[in-house]
Every structure is written in structure tokens, then in C-alpha cells.
Amino acid sequence: MKKRNILTIGLLILMILLLCFPNLCLHAAQNGLLLWFNKVLPSMLPFMIFINILVPLNGLQGFISHCTPLAQRLWHLPGESFFAFLMGVLAGYPIGAKVVKNLYCEHKLSLNEAERTLCFCNNCGPLFIIGTVGTAMLSKTSLGYFLLLIHLLSAFIMSLLLTHNLPISTSTRVSDSTLAPPVSFFRLLNLSVINAMDTIVCVGGYIILFSVLLALMTQTPFAQFLLGHLTSTSEGYLMATGVLSSVLELSNGAHALSKLSLSTYSLACLSAAIGFGGICVYFQSLFVLEDTPFNTKPFFIAKCIQGVLSFALTLLLHPLYLIFTSTKGILYTLNTYNHYFSFNCPCFILLFLLCFWATYQFFPSNQLRQSFYKCKKKPN
After folding, report:
1. Number of domains in the chain
2. pLDDT in the model for residue 202
């Protein structure tokens, strides 16, 4: 009852703020709509349609069978998990969650396997990292490739942490004879387009909603007064605004963090934001996973740990990026950035140990970890 009262009060406050700052909210909603229409819709919709067709067609069964030994060796999971990881990396949020759901609904993955796969397969796409963040926001395409490398490394390390020492799942799959009869390609195409449009419209709604919430939390007079008193410098104000924006919505957060003076730490915050994805992406993934018995708590915790891991990897590897992209010679650059190595390496080690501890704290090994992933019993 208390949670309901708190939620009711919070919604009433937001409605009052909407009435008090209509121009601010209208402008934020327009920006969110343009972001969805110009960037998200054209990049995600084709992928969603193709994925909705590919999985039921079993067209990639040969590729998946070749990936099975690698997935079992790396993650103790079937080859479908590798396919989900690959598609999640190529297409971006929340395509990875969509692929995992489709594989579960088509009985390619058991519930346990799907929940474990979800924790490291829902990632940011290269188009956003290289094009939007690297080229458009930071005006340096090479930094976009560097951030993409960090993102892939953090996702891969996260997958190893989550599946270390886990036995290969022996869950029973439904035989092909019990599955639904195949439908015509035209019918499958229609269903895929309808399903993809439903998903993409919901994603747009979340982007607009969180754009308005972000504006109310960062641009109202009270919010600016509070953030201004919490930070003593303009750079600190931009950092606080950027971090808060990143926690809520990735695109606006990345844009805010890109306004900071370029340094190892501002880049590490940007990398952490990409790894975490933001609460908006989390809710988009929840919508995609609707009507499934997935336990999404492990997924949220895994994304938090991946954000910290991305921060640590950036601290360690950014000086190396500066060395190899410098035009003044390696010896000169090594001397110039020596203080980065002396300070960042201990920070990296501490943060990486924190990721290990958090993973094994929230995802206990062996039998306890198996029970953590268990949801309500449902035929797979």
C-alpha cells in the first residue's frame, strides 16, 4: 500500500510539473520524437522485421550448429546464444532482448538458457557508438571505434563471468513434431512487420517519456539550483547533468557527457553509460520480453556491472589509444602519459575486482547460481 501511495504522489508531482513547465516539456517531447524518428526508427525497424522472419524459418540452423561448440566451450550454452550475442551487438538495444525472446518462444532456448543469454546479449549497436557518439558528438571517428572495442570487451568479459563453472544445461526441448505448423512466407512477413511496428512504437513512447522526465530533472529552476549547489564548477555541473541523464536515457546522456572536456575520465563515464544502457533501455527491454516468464533482475544487475567494467577498461586502455593515435612518436607519448598508467592501473584493478565480487555476490556459483536464475516452472 505504501508503494502505491508513493507512486501516486510521484505521478501527481510530475503532472503538476507538466502544467508548470509546458514549453519545456513540449520541447523535450519534440526532441525525443525527432530522436526516435530520425535515428532509432530507420536503424532498428529493418533488423526487427528480419529477426522476426529469420528465427521461425530456421534459415540459420547451419550457422548455429557450427557455433554450438564455441558457445558450449565459452559459455556452456547452445549455439543459439552465440547467434543472439552477434545480433545484439550488430543491431543494438533492445534487439538482443528481442532475439532471446524469439529463440525462447520458438523453443530454441530453455528458460534457464534464455535468462543467462539475456544478461550479456542485449548491447549497444556499432552504428550508434561509431556514428552518433564518435563522429557526431565527439567529432572523432577513431574514438567511436575505441568505445566500440571497450563495449565488446565488457560484454564478452561479462559473459565469461556469468557462465564460469556452470554445467551445460540439460533442459528438455520441445521436439519439432510438437511445434506449431509452418506458415506461409507472406503470412510470416505480415506478422513480422506488425510485431516490429508494435515494438518500435513502444520504444518511441519510452524515448519521448524519458526525454520529458530528463528535462524536468535537469532543466527546471529547482533542479538547476540543486545541481549547481552540489557542484562547485561548471565542469562538475556538466558532469553531474551528464551522469544523471545517462542513468535515465542513453542518447541524451551521451550528448551531455560529450560536452565535457575530453579526458580519460569523461570518456570512461561515456563508456560506462553505453555499457549500462540507461533505465529507458531497460524498460524497452521489459516491453520486448512481455508475456514471457523471464526473471529480469539478473539482467539489470548484469548491465550495472557491465557499466562499471566498461569504466574500468576505459581507464586502462585509453592511454594505449592515445599512444597509438599520436603523431609525435611512441617514446614521447609514453613519457607524456606516464602519469595515466601510474594512476589508472590501480583504479582498473580495484574496479575489476569489484566487478568480480559483484558478479559472484549476485550470481552465486554452481547450485546457488542455478536457483538464482530459476523462475516459475513453465514448460520450455
Report:
1. 1
2. 86
